[in-house]
Structure formats: structure tokens, C-alpha cells
Amino acid sequence: MSEEYPTMEGPVCPLPHIETDRVVMGHGSGGRMMADLIRSVFRPPLSNPVLEAENDAGVVQPTPPESLAISTDAHVVSPLFFRGGDIGKLAVCGTVNDVAMVGADPKYLTASFILEEGLAISTLQKVVASMQSSAEEAGVQVVAGDTKVVSHGEADGLYISTTGIGIPLTKNEIGGDQAQPGDVVILSGTMGDHGIAVLEARGDLGFETNVESDIAPLNHLVTAMLEASPGIHVLRDPTRGGVATALNEIAQQSNVGVLIRESSLLLQPAVQAACEMLGFDPLYIANEGKLLAVVKREDAEKVLMAMRNTRYGEEAAIIGEITVQPRGRLLMETPLGSKRVVDTLSGEMLPRIC
Amino acid sequence: MKYITEYRDADLVKKTLKKIEKTISRPWTLMEICGGQTHAIVKHGLDQLLPEEVELVHGPGCPVCVTPLELIDKAMAIASQPDVIFTSYGDMLRVPGSNGDLFSIRARGGDVRVVYSPLDALKIAQDNPDKEVVFFAIGFETTAPANVMSVLQAQNLGLENYSILVSHVRVPPAIRAILGSPSNRVQGFLAAGHVNAVMGYWEYEPIAEEFQVPMAVTGFEPLDIAQGILTCVESLEKGEYVVENAYRRAVTKAGNQTAQKIIKQVFQECDRKWRGIGVIPGSGWCLRPAFQEFDAEKRFDVESIQSEESPVCISGLILQGLKKPHECPAFGTKCTPDHPLGATMVSDEGACAAYYHYRSHLTRQGIESS
């Protein structure tokens, strides 16, 4: 019977571009183009039974835990692709790591996409494939999603907002306010790789470094650490603002002092070179695959060994300790033996003139 | 890393500090001219390790700090105009003008961009022929060669949409002004190695002789600075008023003569106002009449803008080495890097910002009260 009714598709103006290699406004219309986009671009790589149900909400059946860890994060990065990663990998790892930093095992993610009209579908496909491979490595499922399209010029290609849900691995409280004087501070590797890789991809450096972003899901590292010791008091991934900002936050939340030793901090030579040339301090540069841990002193060695046996913790080292004074501040001992304050930045880190 | 690791070697620095201790027989007051050196001294905690006879006072060598208020106001007036792309080194964007900073212009829709070199600004001008591109050409002799190069290239390329807002300053007239002041306490100088890499140090010898003050051309790593202090202290102890080169790997007496030649071709000496200090005769560089078409002040008709400094800020006294940052009543209270009253709190190279970032726990707890 339905064939007898005329379809409006022909005369409707403007004519929809069903076949296109670019994102157009119709992809956010809620109509067939959107359904096609979901069916062809998002679903195949991210496929799982929850997503396949195609309902307004994904229904998951975890073993009922006493508590859940939930984190959400919006990801905007320019450019979308850089050495070592892209916005898709960032959107998965960023949220997975935030959930892991309270000692939880991330299980499910939701993802909202804001697409700019004109974005190449092939670009979107690459980003989704990258999300899939990071989700697989982390062992999380994407169980719900949403797509909106905004006019050309109203967004920078593509933004992704993800929410993660995880199940706590320990009953001990892990958090920024749990640092105790006497604890040691562990950093899982080098500093500043992500920030420098993104600056280079932006063409802001004016020279090549070959530095790769360190983006990685850290949940397996956290699991190994928690299995090694119950004496982990704080976990934090030093993303925006770098190691200096994360340790200042811990000092303030726990109302303790933090003392680190400059000679214990690791830097790739190319990162150091880029920082020296631009007048940047690597302590403030973003990381996306590193964590800071504040650990009971007697458990430090065990935790360190466990970390070094994992892929993303091979270069873990003790970089300092928690002190009583000066409360709320981060100090650093220089290789010369003098001490100085490492403050938080007031805003953007600005390259110095000379 | 080559040329860095060796000059941060803790053992070598400690040995040099020991030598200073052995050499020194009485208190001496030295000034490091350059803000980059102030930053390094405080960052590495060198001043905590020096014998107490050595007093370091911080000089006026932060180009961001000494850029006069009206130049910032002129920059903001230009950057607010439609069809202008205003380009600058990053740390100029946060320097407070009379009414906000360049960041606030950007937030209000102005096209203000951070560049790493004036040649990047030139590229922007080539890529945007329908826009006026202005570069904020500030700095000492160090940044002058690249700045004049951008003008020469713009001329060669026939670029009509590129101009520079010039606020160049020169070190030797500033040293003369400090030494000529009746309240001067400085007995020896660490000269700024980067400036000397361009200009050499032939200009400094007559000053050392006239004012009976030794100088040491000094680099920027901890070992360089310790070596510069040692060289200066040795001269003082011997009563020799000479210029010694303690930064031989980068500096020769004649300097980079190609750079000096192009600077002279494009710039001429002029009187320049230094923020917090006032006008120092002959202390600036401006565009020669033959290059007036590249002068943004003329192109945008902002020459008449005049501005008044905040009465609370003592950055002028700090830049002259007469006060230390924590001696200012506003330091760390009314004046912080988040809300700077004066330029010395803005740039990382500014003495107030260096003290705030690296020392504020000491001053707040009253440990350092001298």
C-alpha cells in the first residue's frame, strides 16, 4: 500500500546529499542520513550487544557493586591527529584514566560527538577506529552514544565527550586528600611527551622533534599496583598543567607539603630540547599516559616493582616524598641541593621572548 | 643534552662556588643585567648557595618588564581595530596596560596571535593579503636582528600589509644610567651573554673604565652564572676595572657583525622610556626614516597615546636594583601573577614573578626577611 503514497524526497528543498564523503547538516537531522552514519561509521567498530540494541539508553548488567566510579570529560584537540595519537584515542584514554585514578576498573563508556559540517567521513572513520582499538586495549565497552552536527565554522572539526563508569577495585579510599607525611611520590615515566607532540603537530614549534604523545590507557597499570599493595593513598594522572599542577593539587587537598627531587625526574632529550628552546618548563606540560602515585613508604618498593612489570610503568621511579611543611605547597630540590617553590601557573604557559 | 648537561653539572657548580668563597675577602654588590639570568639564579637556587658576601641585585634586563605602559596601550589600540592581525611573543599578551591586556582584546574578538619569531608574522602577512599584520617588536639587542630581518624581507617581497610596533632597548645606556645614579650600589656587572653574542662587548669597555666597575660577560646555565660571578669577584678583589668574557662558547669581543650591520641599516638610536624608570637618552632603537612605512605607530596613528603608571607599584626601584620584590608592600598580596600591578610580576623573567614562583613560601613565612 505504501507505494501508492508519493514520497516527498524529490521535491524537498534543499535536496539532501545522501551520498557524501563529508559531514553535512543532514547527518545531525535525526533522519535517515544520521541513521546511515551511525550504521556505517560508529556501529561496526564499536559494536557490542548493548549498543546493538539501539535503545535510547544502554542497559548493562554488572555484578552489583557497592559503589561505582563515574567520570566525564569533553575532548577538544587541535589538530585532531598528532604523532602517537588522535582525538579518538584521547577521548577513550582520558576518561578511562580518570576512572582508574580512584582505584576503579573502567567497564563502560558513553560517547557524544559534535561534528562540524564538512568534516571528511574518512576522518571520522579513522577516529572511531582509534577509539575502538583503545577501548579494546583498556577492556571497556562503548554502550551509548550521540551525534550532533553544527554548521561549518561553529566547531573545530570534531569534539568528543565521553563518560566512563568503573567498579572500584579496593575498599580503601584513594583520593587527592589521602596523602600522609612520610609517604613517597612515584611518577610512572617521562614528562611532557603529549604536550610537545601536540604543539609540534600544530606547527607551533618551528622545528621537528619526533616526540610521540604518551597517550595510553592506564587501568591495567593501576590494577597491577593495587594487587601489589593496599597502601596506595593517591593516584592522579598529570594531564593539563602537568606534574607540577597535579602535585600542587594533592598538597592542597591533603594539606601537606610535597618535596620532589629534580634529579629523579625523567625527560626525553627531544622534550627537554623543545622546552629549552621555547622557555617552557616540562613540569607544567601535559601528559596523557602517566600517573603519579602517593604510596605508603614501606610499600613503595613493591608498588614500583609491579609498575615496572607493566607496559606503561617500565620507567616508574620515586621522585619525592610527602612532608608536613610547607602545607599546601610543592617544593623541588635542585641538583645543587637548593630548594625552590614550584607554583601552579595562573593561566596559559607562554613562550618566553628570549 | 650537549651544551646543557655539562653546564648544569652540580659538582662543577659547587667547585666554582667554593672558589668564589676562597677568593672573596669583603662584601660586593653585583647586578645581573638580564631577566633570563635572574630567572636561572632563582630557579636553580644559586643565590642560596653563594657566600653571604655576594649580594646579587636584579637588573632591568627583562624586555617585557621595561616596555612602557603607553606602548602596551598603543598595541591594544592597534589590536582592537578590525582587519588587523596583531602578533607578539607570548609573554607580552599578559602585560597589563591601562585598561586590560592583549588577551582581553582577543577575548573581545580581536585577532591576537602568539608567534615565536617575527618571520612567522611575516608569513601570516603573506597568507592574509587583505589584513594588516603587525608584529610587536620588543626586546634588547638579542631580538633586534630577527626583527630588522622581517622588515628587510617585507621590503624585498613588496609586502604592504606588514608593520612593526617598535619598543627596542639597548643595554649599554641602561648600565650608564644605573652607574650614573647617585643612589647606585652596584660594584660589578654580569653582562647579558645573549646580548653580547650579537653585539660583542667592545661597547662595554669604555663604561667599565669610566665608572671603575668590572663586568663579566655571562651565560645562562648555573655553571655559566657561577663562573661569571667568580670572574667579576676576581676583578673586584684585584681592583681591575675590565670586561672579561666568561661566556666564550657564544661570545666574541666583536660580536656578530652581519647582525650589527643589518640592525644599523634599519634602526637608528633614539631616546626610549623604560617602564618604571623613565626616559634614558639614546637607549632605544627606532626605524630609520627610510623604513617609516613599516612603523605601526604611524600607520595606525597611535603616536599621541599617553599613559600613567599605577602609583602602588615599585617596579621602577626593582628594575634599578634599589629594592627587592618582597620589600614591596603589594608583593604577593595586591600584586600577584594573576593580578599583576606592574610588569615585573608578569613575565617569567621579571624579578617579582621569579620571587613569587620560586620563593613565595619563604617570604610568606618570614624566613627570608632581608
What report would you give on this structure?
By secondary structure, chain A is α+β, with helices and mostly antiparallel strands. Chain A folds into two domains: 8-168, PurM-like, N-terminal domain (60s Ribosomal Protein L30, Chain: A, 2-Layer Sandwich), CATH 3.30.1330.10; 184-341, Phosphoribosyl-aminoimidazole Synthetase, Chain A, domain 2, CATH 3.90.650. Chain A is 29% helix and 22% strand. Chain A has helices spanning 32-46, 49-52, 87-100, 121-138, 193-201, 219-228, 242-254, 269-278, 300-308, and strands spanning 69-75, 81-82, 85-86, 104-116, 141-150, 158-168, 184-187, 232-236, 257-261, 292-295, 317-323, 330-333, 339-341. In chain A, the strands form three sheets. Chain A has a seven-stranded mixed beta sheet. Chain B has 16 helices and eleven strands. Chain B has a six-stranded mixed beta sheet with strand order 4-3-5-6-11-10, with helices on both faces. In chain B, strands 2-1-7-8-9 form a five-stranded parallel beta sheet, with helices on both faces. The chains are: A alpha+beta (354), B alpha/beta (370). Chain A binds chain B through residues 204-206, 269, 272-273, 276, 278-279, 326, 329, 331, 334-343, 346-348, 350-354, and chain B through 1, 4, 8, 10, 13-14, 36, 42-46, 48-49, 63-64, 89-94, 103, 114, 116-117, 120, 138-140, 142-143, 194, 222, 336-338, 347-349, 356-362, 365.
Topology at a glance:
The complex is a heterodimer of chains A (354) and B (370).
Chain A: H1 32-46, H2 49-52, E1 69-75, E2 81-82, E3 85-86, H3 87-100, E4 104-116, H4 121-138, E5 141-150, E6 158-168, E7 184-187, H5 193-201, H6 219-228, E8 232-236, H7 242-254, E9 257-261, H8 269-278, E10 292-295, H9 300-308, E11 317-323, E12 330-333, E13 339-341
Parallel strand pairs in A: 4-5, 9-12
Antiparallel strand pairs in A: 1-6, 2-3, 4-6, 7-10, 7-11, 8-10, 9-11, 12-13
Chain B: H1 10-23, E1 28-34, H2 35-43, H3 46-49, E2 54-61, H4 63-66, H5 69-79, E3 84-88, H6 102-107, E4 111-114, H7 118-127, E5 132-139, H8 144-157, E6 162-169, H9 171-180, E7 188-192, H10 193-199, H11 205-211, E8 215-218, H12 222-238, E9 243-245, H13 257-266, E10 267-274, E11 278-287, H14 296-299, H15 315-319, H16 351-364
Parallel strand pairs in B: 1-2, 1-7, 3-4, 3-5, 5-6, 7-8, 8-9
Antiparallel strand pairs in B: 6-11, 10-11
